[in-house]
Amino acid sequence: MKVLLIGDGARENALAEALGKSNRGYRVYAMSSYVNPGIKEVVDKTGGKYYIGNILSIENVRRVIKEVNPDFGVIGPEDPLFEGVANAFREEGIPVVGPNKEGAMIEKSKVWMRQLMWKYNIPGRLRFKAFNNLAEASKFILEFGGSIAIKPSEQVGGKGVKVVADLQAYLSEEKRNALSKGVNNIAGLVKDEVKLIIEEKVDGPEYTLHVLTDGYSYLPLPLAQDYKNAYEDGIGPETGGMGSISGPDHLLPFINEEEYEKSLEIVKLTAEAIRKETGMDYIGVLSGQMMLTGLWGPTIIEYYSRLGDPEASAIIPRIRSDFAEILELTATRHLSKAKLEVEEKPSIVRAVAPLGYPLDKKMASGHKISLDLPKMRELGCNVYFGSVALEGMSLVTKGSRAIEIVVIDDFINASNKLDQCFSLVSSDTKLIYRHDIGNTLEVQVEKAEIVRYTYKSREKNGMLGISADWSPNGGLW
């Protein structure tokens, strides 16, 4: 069987590895914007073919689909989904893992997502107000007295989110003046008519639940947690993710079984709402970026219409079942036949990025990076190649996270192995790498217990989701 994989990052490298090692003997074809060495290794090993081209061009992708004539496709990144690449596969009669562009709106537009959750009364929803008039947004920020989060209205790669917590009254005016002046910067990231969205601020440990669905059945994957900030201890600019953890088993140390089931129910209700709203079944991965809050318990911060990155690097290697077959069953709408077995031990992923990431792509691009891959594998580390291209015999950075190093072991052993493997990576520029990922779990467990007490008390008194500062129809007072 032939499978066509679209995408060029570490997530796609992890997907390619799963496809390449399947007992079903898939021949892996791939289309990327540059040659990812990890994906190329799988393509060469399975006898497929590597295509280089614009993965956002429907015309280019359709040409490759017609040439390969795959049995099914897998789309890794979100941008091709936004452009309608999944639609192109289905128009050519090829089943694919990935929603149509209509369903991918759940990730592309935060306004559409929030409106959907309120329209269909989905638990875990936050109150919000959308603005296309920046003067009105600035005025609202100055006048509103509660804690808020300001975000671009559409997906911009995790950039532009600003938060103000109204905890110290004597700082409120200064904080709000600064925040109101920053709305132009946030809005400048957005192409849509609606520029930004203001939400009620919530706090708690974050986690992601990825759910595979064929429009009929739902298969939840193990939980993962992403580490967004560039530098140690969660400081610095937000990135696409500097690392991730998953496990033990299908949970995380700070999320219990009941919360996992509630999170799954929220995602399922959202998939059903998308079908009602668009008239199309959602086929692919629907991922809830969640936060455990005192307001709701499991709460939706945003949705992904695909696997997260680097969360995929933490989850996929832990799946003992034939994950490639599960992907095929998703695409061909036979997911009810799938069985998922998961490694009990947890995993840690740590990304390595060139200096300049995430604020200066030009500064982070064009650097040579080298690693002792055999030695890293001998130490128990797996490596997925991300924003790094194979140019001749050299690995050259493309401006984002270059590699993701993965270890499956208890958190202490995994952390030690990761540091050893990082010492085997070198470059002609300084490299960014967070040693603390997977090492702060006690703090998160304690935080979750505090939040859990709060939302359980609210639940007991029938107060889940009720906030005094916000109106019940999705807008602010």
From TrEMBL:
Keywords: ATP-binding, Ligase, Nucleotide-binding, Purine biosynthesis
Membrane-spanning parts: none
Family statement drawn from the similarity comment of this UniProt entry: Belongs to the GARS family.
Domain ATP-grasp, chain residue ranges per copy: 114-332
BP-aspect Gene Ontology terms: 'de novo' IMP biosynthetic process; purine nucleobase biosynthetic process
One Pfam family matching this protein: GARS_N
Domain of life: Archaea
Organism: Stygiolobus azoricus
InterPro entries documented for this protein: ATP-grasp, ATP_grasp_subdomain_1, PreATP-grasp_dom_sf, PRibGlycinamid_synth_ATP-grasp, PRibGlycinamide_synth, PRibGlycinamide_synth_C-dom, PRibGlycinamide_synth_C_sf, PRibGlycinamide_synth_N
GO MF assignments: ATP binding; metal ion binding; phosphoribosylamine-glycine ligase activity
PANTHER family in UniProt: PHOSPHORIBOSYLAMINE--GLYCINE LIGASE (PTHR43472), PHOSPHORIBOSYLAMINE--GLYCINE LIGASE, CHLOROPLASTIC (PTHR43472:SF1)
Name of the protein this chain belongs to: phosphoribosylamine--glycine ligase
EC number: 6.3.4.13
Record pathway: Purine metabolism; IMP biosynthesis via de novo pathway; N(1)-(5-phospho-D-ribosyl)glycinamide from 5-phospho-alpha-D-ribose 1-diphosphate: step 2/2
EC class of the enzyme, as a word: ligase
